[in-house]
Amino acid sequence: MLDYPLDHVAVAVTSLEEAVHLYERVTGSSGSPVEEMESQGVRVSFVGSLELLEPLGPETTVGRFLDRQGPGLHHIAYRVPDLPEALSRAKEEGFRLIDSEPRPGARGHLVAFLHPKSTGGVLIELVQKGS
Known about the structure:
This protein is of the alpha+beta class. 24% of the residues lie in helices and 32% in strands. It has helices spanning 16-27, 61-69, 83-92, and strands spanning 6-12, 35-37, 42-47, 50-55, 72-79, 103-104, 110-114, 124-128.
């Protein structure tokens, strides 16, 4: 059903600065400027196709994730040309939607998530690039 290209892989981290430094050393790429996404409760930086997520507090979604799981893979994101249409297709295919409507994401993109209980245990993000 989801025949979309991989956009990025996201990792939850306890320190954005330490993680950016680590992945810059590993990849030779530079980290993007840090974005604070207050609506999503995270600070974000990208190193290549890797999105690093640091929670703004322990009560946020990523903060609770880190408390339960520790640092590591948070989600996999796929690029879609039309997010509302992709959500409609996902619902028709029986995927459980966390977001029934697109919401603002990092880098000015629109995003929506599919529940991991319907995707083999992995949180899936659908991303429509901003203009």
